[in-house]
Amino acid sequence: MRKSVLVILLAIAFVVGSVSFAATYTSTANHNIDVSIPEVAFLRIGNTGTSLTFAPTAEQLASGLAANSTYTMTGTSGQDVLQALVNKGSWSLGVSVSTTTSVTTWAATSTDGLALSQITVTPTVTGDTGIPALVSSFDLGTVSTSGTSIAAADGSGTYTGMTISSGSGTKTQGWQNVGIDAGSYTLTLTGNEAPGSYSAVVTYVLATP
Amino acid sequence: MGKPFVVALAFLALISGVYASEIGVSPSRVDLQATPGSTVTESIDLISNSTTTEHVTVHVSDWTLSPTGKLQFLSNGSAEYSSRSWLQPEAMALDLPPNSTVPFRFSLEVPSDSALDGTYHAMLVFDIGAAAPALNGKVQMSVTTAIGVAVYVSISGTERPKAQLSDMYLGDNGALAVVLSNEGNTLVRITGAIEFRDRDGKTLATQSVDDIPVLRGSQREVDVPVPKSLTSGYYVALALLHDRQGATLSGQLPIQVP
Fold first, then answer.
1. Under DSSP, is residue A54 helix (H, G, I), strand (E, B) or coil?
2. What is the pLDDT of residues B59-74, one digit of tens each?
3. Which of A36, B60, B105, B119 meets the CB 3.0–4.6 Å disulfide criterion with B186?
4. Which residues contact B160 (CB under 8 A, 6 or more apart)?
5. Looking at the complex, does the CB of residue A37 fall below 8 Å from at least one CB of chain B?
6. Which residues touch B12 (CB under 8 Å, ≥6 apart)?
């Protein structure tokens, strides 16, 4: 009896072992899947425009500039929403301003004439969750005097700028609105401005240090 | 070409989006190894999905990070551990065709100085030149974009990473401030998590900390939001962080959520 049980157990073990042996060596096939995601950083301005115009009419100035008051207007046409995409965890968004193309000289202060500080940028587009430290308001005068600089490789073309938003440990989760479009720019006039053509170039700089 | 086809094409153009002043880079930063007296060459991709040709100006800049992590461009020659003067872009300006990816090469000529050690850095900035605004009696502005690529170069075999978790405290803004110090001579990147535990040691919430760069010889303060899911009470914030060399940085702070 004991011997026959042993024989049966050995037989079962042989059959099971044969099945698993066969399964191991007759059904192997591998598909190696390699996924490679590149590090990227993008910055863009949507739609049609990268220019911004303030063109108050004489009538607007006359009606809006009572004594000791200001006349405020927003930008027209031009810059669509600013968007960023970063898939690394640390990023920084800066802004700089250059006035090298201007015909009429910008004044240092608003009491001397038209100054960059009279142009304020306020986020008007709701920022997406991927940009948690979204910019707060800033004026271009502060930007132009912030004291930091970007210099051209050949030593020319230095301009100044400052950081307006940064993220630590946060990716942007695809294209995200930074919160700035044409309607974000506001010009406040005091009546001291010299007539003329004023121009400036505003540059937003994204980096992932 | 039939009219319906033209209409369909116009519709596709509308829904696909048209972007101006767009520029992208890949990779978004570069880590290189070199020896004194050697020259290393690297290439990155400049990418544009814009529908028009973008004229790009190339800058090389010194920079640093503020203790709160804000990027600060510095006037040339004023940055510590700068590799700006070693960095040679292949061109100072180029035209980026519409919907294109263009390789851009640069080289680093490391001086023959045996005293060099650790990691040095600079930044390549690609600036889409804005056309000068029309001067027509108005106030005109052009708005454009630029993108910076951080370039790090380490002198092979000389790196001494030494990162520390210096302090943790609850800031006035309600966030948990984690202070990281880099007393070594190379860049460290800190990753990990902050666990918020109750008095029984049970983890109730976790906030991840991802890829925080701390430049050599500098300090960083990282704000970690206290999870809104925590109700009023006492907790322990436990920092479990590590650098990319594998060193562990840990610490804990009892906090009260009002």
1. strand
2. 888 888 888 887 887 7
3. B119
4. B117, B118, B184, B185, B186
5. no
6. none
3-state secondary structure of B72: strand
In angstroms, the CA B175 to CA B140 distance is: 41
Assign B89 a pLDDT band (cuts: 50, 70, 90). very high
Contact A65, A104 (CB under 8 A): no
Is B71 in Cβ contact with A198 (below 8 Å)? no
Q: What is the pLDDT of residue B15?
A: 30
Q: Which residues pair with B188 in a beta bridge?
A: B214
Are B140 and A51 within 8 A, CB to CB?
Answer: yes
Please tell me what DSSP assigns to residue A10: H
Of A50, A161, A198, the CB nearest to B142: A50
**CA torsion, points B219, B145, A107, A67, in degrees to nearest 10?**
-100
Q: B139-155 and A198-207 as β-strands: parallel, antiparallel, unpaired?
A: parallel
Neighboring chain B residues of A195 at a CB cutoff of 8 Å:
137
Q: How far is CA B72 from the centre of its chain?
A: 12
Reference A181, options A65, A89, A46; nearest CA is: A46
Distance CA B23, CA B48 (A): 5
The CB density around residue B3, as the number of other CB atoms within 10 Å, is 7
Q: Does A17 touch chain B (CB under 8 A)?
A: no
For residue B2, the number of C-alpha atoms closer than 13 Å in the C-beta half-sphere is 3
CA distances from A176 to A184, B4, B126 (A): 17, 34, 21
Q: Choosing among A80, A101, A103, A203, which should be mutated to test the B contact, i.e. which has the most B CBs within 10 A?
A: A203
Structure tokens at A17: 């072992």
Contact B46, B101 (CB under 8 A): yes
C-alpha pair distances (Å), A78 with each of B133, B161, B189: 11, 48, 40
Q: Between B20, B21, B71, which is nearest A166 by CB?
A: B71
Show which of residues 143-202 on chain A sit within 8 Å of chain B, judged by CB atoms: 148-155, 157-158, 161, 163, 166, 168-171, 185, 187, 195-202
User: Which tens digit of pLDDT belongs to each residue from B147-198?
Assistant: 999 999 999 999 999 999 999 999 988 899 999 999 999 999 999 999 999 9
Write out the two tokens for B222. 């990282």
* SS3 state of residue B63: strand
pLDDT at position A71, please? Answer: 72
Q: How many helices (H) and strands (E) does chain A have?
A: 3, 12
Q: Which residue has the tokens 């929403």?
A: A81
Specify whether the CB–CB gap between B182 and B215 falls below 8 A.
yes
Chain A interface, best mutation among B125, B139, B241, by max A CB count within 10 A: B139
